[in-house]
Structure prediction request, 598 residues.
Amino acid sequence: MHTIDEILQILDEVKPGLEAGENDELVKTGLLDSVDIMGIVMAISEEFDLEITPLDLKEENFHTAAAMLALVNRLEEE
Amino acid sequence: MAYHSSVYLLLFLPLMWALWALVPQKYRAGVLLGGSLWFYWCGANYGIVWLLGIAAVVWLLGLAMGRTEALCAAVRPALDPPGRKALKKQAAALKRCLLVSGAAGLVLVLVRIKYLPFLLRVPLQWLAENRPWWPQLSLSSITQPLGISFFLLMGISYLVDVSRGAAQPAQKYWQVLSFLCFWPHVVEGPFDRWDKTAPALLDPPAPSYRALCFGVQRMVWGLFKKIVIADRANAFVKLVFDDWTQYSGAAIVVGTLCYTLQLYAEFSGCMDLALGTAEAFGVPLSENFRQPFFARSVSEFWRRWHITLGAWLREYVFQPVIVSKPMMRFGKFCRGRFGAAAGRSLPVWTGLLITWVLIGLWHGAGLIYLVYGLYYFLLQLLGEIAEPHLPAALTAKRETRWYKALQMLRTFVLVNFGMMLFRANGVMALLQMLRRLFTPWRQSLLIGIDAKDAAVLAAGAALMLAVDVLHERGHHLRSELAARPLPLRWAVMIAGVVAVMLFGAYGDHYDPAGFIYAQF
Prediction:
C-alpha cells in the first residue's frame, strides 16, 4: 500500500507550485489539464512500475490526490 | 441541402418533424433514419454507398466484439482460474485484432480519399522530373463523400468504446447506420458518442412543445450568426485573402479579425442549427463550443473551440499513444539519458506533437494545415516550458481581473494569427501577407462591404459577445426566456426571424457561402 505523501510528491514534481491537499479538486478547477495528467501517468507508472491502460484514464481517477492513490493501490493489487 | 437553405428550413425540417410527431412511437426511430438517408442522398447522391458500406463494416465488427464477450461470459463459469485467465487473454487478443483491423481499415479509407493525392504529389513530381525512365503514374481522384471525416471518426469511436466495454454493441445494422448518418451531425459534427446519442436516437422521446421551442430558438440564433454575420464578413474576407497582394497593413489586420468573426459565427452557428434541430427531435448532441474567446491560453481555447474534435483526439489518440508500450519504453530511455523530468515530459510532448499534426491535417490535406497544427503545438510547448519560470510576483496576480484580461487578449491575438495562417492561400501567400502587414494601408477599410454592412457586422459581433458573456456567467438564456410571459417570448422569437430576414446577407449583392467545415 502506498501513501498519500508519495502521490503529493509526484504532483509536486510534475506540477511545481501546485500545493494540492489530499482531497482538493484538481481537474474541474482547471489546476490540472490533460497534458498534466499524462505527465502524472508517466510518473506514476515509472515510480511504481505499474501498467496504466487507456481504460484507467478516467477523470474520476485523477481529480484528487486521494483518487490517484486509490488507482495506484488498485492497480498494484491487480 | 445546407442547414441554412430554405429547402431545409421550410420543407425538409417541418415535414420531418410533423411526420416524426404524428407516427406511433415505435416508428419514430425509423422516421429519423429515413430523414437522415434522404438528407444524405440530397447532399451526396451515390456517395451514400460509402456511408452504407462503412456503417455495415462498423456494425459487423462491433457485433463480433460483442459476441466474443458474450461467448466468454457463457464459458467462463465452467473453467478453473488458470483457464479463465487464458480465456480472458484470448478474448482480449481477438477483440484487439478486430478493433485494430477495423480502425486501420477506416483510417486507410480516409487517407486514400482525402490525403493520398497530397502525400504522393511531391514524390511523383520528383520522379517525373529526375527519373525520366520511371513510368508515369497518376492517382485517380475519388470524390470525397459528404461528411466522411465525421462519420468515419464516429465509427472508430464506436468500435473503441465497444472493445473497451464502455458501450454495448448495436444488434441491428440500421441502429449503427442511424447513429452515423443522423443528419444534424453528419455534415459538420459534432463528434457524438454512441452511448450518449444512440438511446434517444433509437428510442426517441415523445414530441414536446418545450423541446420544439428550444430547438427552434437555437436554430434562429444559428441562422442569425450564419446569414447576418458570417456571410456578410465573408465579402470582406474573400477579397483580402484571395487577392492578398492588393492589400496591406490595417486591411490585412481587419481582414483577419473579420475571418475570425466569420469562422466563429459560421461554425458555432452551424452547431446551433444542428443541435437545435436535434433538440426539437428530442436527441441530445454534444456541445462543440463554450465561449472560446474567454480562454486564457491556447490550450484552453482548444478545450472551448471544436470541443468534440479535441475530446476525440484526446481520448482515442493522445491518451492511448502516451500509455502505449513503445511510448513507455521511450519514457524510460529519456529518463536514463536526460533525467526524470525529461522521462516524463518528452513522451507527453511527442503525443502532443502527433495530436496537433493530426488536428492540422484533419482540416485539410496541405502543407499550410500541417503548419497550422505545428503552430499550436509550438505555442502549447512554449507555454509548458515557460510556466515554471514565470516570476512569483506575476503568478501571484493570476486570479486578478487585469491579469485574466491580459491572458485573454494574448490568447485572442495568438488565435487570430492562427486564423490568418488557416485562411491564407498557402504558405507563400501567408509569408507575403506577413510582409505586407508592415506596409501602411491608406485607403478605405470598407472592402467588399459598405457602411451599412460594417454597422450590421459590428452590432452582430457585439450581440454575440453579449450572449457569450451571459453564458460565461452561467445564464441559460432559453430557460430564462421560457419563464417570461408568452407575448415577450414570441416578441423575441419574431424579432430574431425578422432580423435574419432584414439583415441577412443574401441576394444579388452577396455570394452565397457554403459552410466552411462541411468540406472537411
Remarks:
- Chain B is about 75% helix and 0% strand.
- The interface with chain A takes residues 164, 299-300, 303, 314-315, 318-320, 322-323, 328, 331-332, 335, 340-341, 343-345, 347-348, 351-352, 380, 384, 388, 395 of chain B (CB under 8 Å).
- Chain B has a mean pLDDT of 90.
- The radius of gyration of chain B is 25 Å.
